[in-house]
Amino acid sequence: MEKDTTKDVTDSVNYFTKWFKSIDWDAVISKVISVGLEILVLIILYFILKYAGSKIIKSFFKKYRRNPAVSNNRADTLEGLILNFYGYVLFFVFAILILQNFINVTAIIAGAGVASLAIAFGAQGLVSDVVTGFFILLERQLDVGDSITLDTVNGYVENLGLRTTQVRDFDGTLHFIPNRQIMIVSNHSRGNMRVLVDVAISPKADTEKAIQIIEQICEAEKNTNKNIVEMPTVLGVESSDGTNQVIRIVGTAVNGEQFGVQRDLLKKIREALLQAEIDLPIATPIVKTAQA
Amino acid sequence: MEKDTTKDVTDSVNYFTKWFKSIDWDAVISKVISVGLEILVLIILYFILKYAGSKIIKSFFKKYRRNPAVSNNRADTLEGLILNFYGYVLFFVFAILILQNFINVTAIIAGAGVASLAIAFGAQGLVSDVVTGFFILLERQLDVGDSITLDTVNGYVENLGLRTTQVRDFDGTLHFIPNRQIMIVSNHSRGNMRVLVDVAISPKADTEKAIQIIEQICEAEKNTNKNIVEMPTVLGVESSDGTNQVIRIVGTAVNGEQFGVQRDLLKKIREALLQAEIDLPIATPIVKTAQA
Amino acid sequence: MEKDTTKDVTDSVNYFTKWFKSIDWDAVISKVISVGLEILVLIILYFILKYAGSKIIKSFFKKYRRNPAVSNNRADTLEGLILNFYGYVLFFVFAILILQNFINVTAIIAGAGVASLAIAFGAQGLVSDVVTGFFILLERQLDVGDSITLDTVNGYVENLGLRTTQVRDFDGTLHFIPNRQIMIVSNHSRGNMRVLVDVAISPKADTEKAIQIIEQICEAEKNTNKNIVEMPTVLGVESSDGTNQVIRIVGTAVNGEQFGVQRDLLKKIREALLQAEIDLPIATPIVKTAQA
Amino acid sequence: MEKDTTKDVTDSVNYFTKWFKSIDWDAVISKVISVGLEILVLIILYFILKYAGSKIIKSFFKKYRRNPAVSNNRADTLEGLILNFYGYVLFFVFAILILQNFINVTAIIAGAGVASLAIAFGAQGLVSDVVTGFFILLERQLDVGDSITLDTVNGYVENLGLRTTQVRDFDGTLHFIPNRQIMIVSNHSRGNMRVLVDVAISPKADTEKAIQIIEQICEAEKNTNKNIVEMPTVLGVESSDGTNQVIRIVGTAVNGEQFGVQRDLLKKIREALLQAEIDLPIATPIVKTAQA
Amino acid sequence: MEKDTTKDVTDSVNYFTKWFKSIDWDAVISKVISVGLEILVLIILYFILKYAGSKIIKSFFKKYRRNPAVSNNRADTLEGLILNFYGYVLFFVFAILILQNFINVTAIIAGAGVASLAIAFGAQGLVSDVVTGFFILLERQLDVGDSITLDTVNGYVENLGLRTTQVRDFDGTLHFIPNRQIMIVSNHSRGNMRVLVDVAISPKADTEKAIQIIEQICEAEKNTNKNIVEMPTVLGVESSDGTNQVIRIVGTAVNGEQFGVQRDLLKKIREALLQAEIDLPIATPIVKTAQA
Amino acid sequence: MEKDTTKDVTDSVNYFTKWFKSIDWDAVISKVISVGLEILVLIILYFILKYAGSKIIKSFFKKYRRNPAVSNNRADTLEGLILNFYGYVLFFVFAILILQNFINVTAIIAGAGVASLAIAFGAQGLVSDVVTGFFILLERQLDVGDSITLDTVNGYVENLGLRTTQVRDFDGTLHFIPNRQIMIVSNHSRGNMRVLVDVAISPKADTEKAIQIIEQICEAEKNTNKNIVEMPTVLGVESSDGTNQVIRIVGTAVNGEQFGVQRDLLKKIREALLQAEIDLPIATPIVKTAQA
Amino acid sequence: MEKDTTKDVTDSVNYFTKWFKSIDWDAVISKVISVGLEILVLIILYFILKYAGSKIIKSFFKKYRRNPAVSNNRADTLEGLILNFYGYVLFFVFAILILQNFINVTAIIAGAGVASLAIAFGAQGLVSDVVTGFFILLERQLDVGDSITLDTVNGYVENLGLRTTQVRDFDGTLHFIPNRQIMIVSNHSRGNMRVLVDVAISPKADTEKAIQIIEQICEAEKNTNKNIVEMPTVLGVESSDGTNQVIRIVGTAVNGEQFGVQRDLLKKIREALLQAEIDLPIATPIVKTAQA
């Protein structure tokens, strides 16, 4: 500590300014402009290809839809998917071409350093999305327009992508679901649906008579309602306690019409039972944990 | 910064246009066509093999089903499985052949870079699916048509695959369940099923008499109902409080008929108790958290 | 772009047809037949060994069961286990022998590429199954026929395997549980079981008298019911509020008979209390969240 | 142990003081000052660049917003995002430049020691955030100002970033959500929304008449309320028990106005039913598990 | 395809039979017998060592228990543990010796192929078991006979092992808990336990008088009941609403006697309050979600 | 076994004592003292630096707070953070310097053995803490004194650290939350807050009149209460059933005053409705699942 | 198969017995004794060091506690911790010294085989425990004797260790919590605590008068109860419905006395309200989900 610190400071400042001057500013600027131009050209090319590609795909599907053997839903699914796939491929090809100017992308993708490890961990979600999405499409689990349940989401399929599935909720909300979140696909648009009505009557009412009345209504309904596939039949007394006894009716309806048929049956059975003077259950509330 | 920047720009543009001209466009186009042809041939071959293979498998099973010793469910299971397996193998073989033109697939599969790590993480779900599916089939845990419970899904098995199992819900919904989601397989179609009826009567009613009446009905039912395997017997008073006492009856029925037998017993016991003037439980509602 | 593209196409087609012709179809066919024959021989051998082995194991256990010192449950457990183990070993040995013709199995098992990583991730479930199963067997936590609770499944053990445990539910359902899902094994078939009865009486009833009556019944029951191990004793008033007071009785019964003893005690105590004119609790419902 | 320990102590102290004197304090101080200056310059540069960059970005968006074809929400989204991205890039570039003086950052990023492993594990959350955020933006799942539900959070999007999304709750709370927490994006601002009203009336009231009245009100409302898109229609009797029957009405409203339309309809239907002397449901409370 | 395929088949068959004949069956048989003998000797040795070792350990603990300074529970814990440990070490040493004949066990344990990776993943549960078990023992968290709660299991510790802990439930069930499942050990057998009684009286009853009566009973109880450690004292009015007010009493009892003391206090306080004509709470049921 | 075992024993003992004597006890002691001294010096230095550093930081912030443009909360946040950061850096630098004497810390940090793997797994929590904490600070999600919700914890921020955040609960409890546990930060101190009051009246009361009265009160309140930002307006009838109809009022208040405004409005509206003789809802309890 | 198998057997037996005889039994025995002696010496040394070390630490803390500036809780914390740390270090040093005789411990710790991988996976829990424990201590989140909540456990801290924290529940149970299970530390012994009382009165009672009475009592209580820090003030009407209105009172009490103050206030307010003839809420039960 014999020397004065002022000299140290001067030395350090000199050292720093020398380093600053030593940079070849011309080369830097020239490089910046060259790279900028390349990026510009790539971006313009990207938009041209994107626009042209989408045009071609859409016009192809316009013709494809005229084919009467092709369902509209299937065509929508395919068109959306191909557009989605084309968009991603284009985006990543150009993104890598542009990034190439700044970092050695290939080296990172092949490497095993911290960065690549972190990327591998972070990107596994993306890979899972694509793998799951791929099989959902390959196995045709979903079509655009299907009524489905995915995890906690209900609604109609709006769009199928490699990475995300878009579902339009019955209340109008649009859900974006990463495919990896899709565990069990429950598709309500594949085949006829069950009709199930539970009718509760007073515990001391005449069960036989009630069942007869219900059966007559089911018979009549079968003949008049073309949405019914299998005639609803009375299964019997499902449960019974001090306040009511429950009679269960089960049948089959055309896909998508099951709720309408149920409401119809419920209303008609109710009116018939009231006419026949079969008592309602004893008027104590069924205490429910209300939902929503 | 002595030089003018205009020159820098001109240099950069020159550099870029030179690079653009230097590309051998002939070679590029020739390569594109050659690859395109190869892919076309592969795709045609794929569809021929797929069609022919399915045909052969199906016609084989047509003969196989004539064999009286073979249950239809088992034949369905095997046919679906073999078709599914054949489809996947064909698909992946041709997919790799086609991809081979673009990327060095073998290198990636053998490599250890970021991409392969990410793929390994992402694909472990797929491997889990196949491993689990394989053992479900090997241990014959499921047959097409079985009534089952898998996790939260109830229904009939519609199709068994290496990767997914399709279950038709009782309400008509079709569930696609990746095999790895299947933890515990609960198969309701393997052997006779229990019949269990709980009858509630007034807390001060004559228990002995009620039990006698119920036993007579069980006896009679056993003789007339061929779906009953073991005669239902009265276990005794299961619980008892200020509003009712519960008598439990247990027996065994032919697989699939247990609910019908329960409804039958419930209705007959109820009528007999009302005739014998044994009181219903005190008419206060049992407050339930209603489900659905 | 000076050359005409037609020539490019012709070149490509030529290139492709040359490659097609260059394949040695004879060698391919000969190889296919040779491999086919080998697989056939292996499959036949597999079935012979499987049949013979099972036969030998079963006949051995037939003799083994005649030994009076051996419990039937233990013999069932061992027989099922050995058959299961023999089946898996045979299956995998032959599977690897057959696969050997198509892929270099040893290389994959020893390698560290993506495929093997994915397999390792996917197969860890299988290894966990076997490790857990191995210790369940080694520590004799379960025997065939035991009444158990595994996670959410109740029932009797039907079969014990290295990979899965089969449990027959009390309602007849057959559960297949991969061993790795088995966290805590709760075995209800190991030693005497507790008998616990809670009797509710009116809040203003004479507690001392009620306890006396209950103690007399316990005394009597102990003498007549040979399923009781330890005489049930009255612990005292467990809880008490504005509508009832609860008296708790605890004893021990022979394994499997505890529920019968409880039902018996409940019925007798109830009758005695009604005779002695000790009031039931005030008749307000206990609101329960009903289960099932 | 023949030597005295005092000598050991003296030796050790000497050894230690020698080491202390041997340090070249001049070099240390000079180095400290030089590094300090460099850091100072970097920090000043950082603030200049940050200020200038933000200024330029904001003034650009000022002009961009004048473009009538551009929605304000989209402009806000883009401006916030670009500012956010610019801020992060600047921060990390300068942070690495400064850290470079103390640790060999490149070595750590490329290395595979414990530190880098720990960093890779710890940083995977960060990478997941950025990957997820990137796709949310690319797929335009959210715009600033959208009404959304993310996991358990409801509100309006306040800001979209690469790492976090800021959501303003309806009650004024500001939520910061790391993008990786965003599983399913439920966007309530994309298209028309459903209007759903459930009207409960007495179980013995005249259903036909009630439905007629409700339909007249819906008709009138459709004509006067411009927020209604699709006329609300009566679906029928949704459910019915001993205390009430529920009539369901469904329609469509302009996005964001659905709750107002529902309140309006509810009030008018209620008044009309009271006027027409159609009874309210029997006055027993619906027992709910109150929320909040 | 000029050659006839028959020749191909003949060639293949020849090739196959040659391979079959080329095997040195003598060497195979000799090897099988030699290995069989070695395994036999090892198995016999294993059973001898197991029997002898257990004998020695048990006889040692017989003497050890005579030492009056040693608690029985501790001796049980140690004996069970050492037997368990000895059994596992013996088993694995001999298992590896026998397996050595079939596979190169050392190579697998040291290797890094798929098999070993899968084993490492699968076996981590086992290692976790042993590590956790080791610390539970080292820190003496449990002794055989302690009343404990582990996760969802209540009961008495029956056996402590390196891999599993056996707990006898109060209802007689025997739980086998892998040590890794043991998160928080809650030991109810370490020191005195709290006595807590909540007494509900009518909302308009004289609180001061009730507290006085309760305090007298606590005083008296303290003098007569030797299980009480700290005299129960009245904390005051814990809560109060339209139907009742709750008075809380807290004290300390000898470990294991707290429930008896609580029941005792409850009964005596109740009788005293009824005698003093202090009203019970208004007779409306407290609606509970009943458990079990 | 021809030799006597006594000789073996003697040999072994000799071997052991030789090894014991061969240790250079002088060197050991000298080393121990030298290391001890170094550690002592390091510890003293640590405490000096810690004390001096804290002093300097605190005095700096004393001056910084006099700056009127700086909010107190922000200054507290920064001061706490810098002290926290300084403390950790100092601690770890000295900890490594001291550990250096015992283990080769650098080797472990760079190594890839079991120890380092275990450390990497174990320490990832720490890294996650710091990474998350860093971004919470960088994005200014929290300030000391903010009212927040983190996961299940509510309260005021007491201290922000790189590893833990301290939150003072409204009931006085101090929560220490590792930053990695902080998923969604919900900050209640950023901007005005909503005021929401639900008023329930009798189902047959005059809705129009009630709304008029409420609107008058809102108007008056707006003029007198300076905490109100946006005048509360009546949205309309939110819901309606057999026992009540609910009118919803919504407005905005100054941050932190929203609950006071709500209580105020509730009280005044209630009084006005009672004066205007608008009936309360029918007096049946709303059954709630009580919390705490 | 020309040779007789007898010769094979004889050969095998000869081979085996030769191998058996070839073992140098002398060397084996000598080695066993030598190792045994070394272990014995190590074990004796371990117990001496453990005993002596504990003695020294305890006597040091005896003196340390006499220092009046040191709180007893802090001294307990430090003493327990140092004993715990000393015990573990000693244990592991000697354990490794002993194991060294059997396995090459260093090799395993440095290695990367299956065993070490499995150990690394299994041991990460241990490392997590120590890392978390270390920071809990460093940041002084807990002291022995503090009233705390850790996850689901409530109680007083009994002992703080590097690996486990012991908490004495209020009911006397002793919980052993591995430190890694400790997520959020909620310490109830750091500063004054809130006092919160909710008083419910009849919905039509005079609110103003009730608030006046409560305020008088709060005033009086503040003057007489020295445990109150901040005078409790009436916040206003918290909620109101058809059966009651709730008035909330909030203040601050000395740490640990908050529950006593609450009980006191509740009792006095209740009495005052009854005297002033302000009605209790309408006597309908609040239905709670009873806890324990």
Secondary structure elements and their pairing?
The structure is a homoheptamer of 292-residue chains.
Chain A: H1 5-21, H2 25-66, H3 72-99, H4 105-110, H5 114-138, E1 147-150, E2 153-160, E3 164-168, E4 174-178, E5 185-187, E6 193-201, H6 207-224, E7 228-240, E8 245-253, H7 258-275
Antiparallel strand pairs in A: 1-2, 1-5, 2-3, 3-4, 6-8, 7-8
Structure summary:
Chains A, B, C, D, E, F, G: It is found in: Cell membrane. Chain A is of the alpha+beta class and 292 residues long.
Report on the architecture of this protein:
7 copies of one chain form a homoheptamer. With 292 residues, chain A is of the alpha+beta class. Chain A has 3 domains: 11-103, Orthogonal Bundle (Helix Hairpins), CATH 1.10.287; 146-187, Roll (SH3 type barrels); 193-276, 2-Layer Sandwich (Alpha-Beta Plaits), CATH 3.30.70.100. The first copy, chain A, is built from 7 helices and 8 strands. Chain A has a 5-stranded antiparallel sheet with strand order 4-3-2-1-5. The longest helix of chain A is centred in the first third of the chain and has 42 residues, at 25-66. Mean pLDDT of chain A is 81; it is low at 284-292.
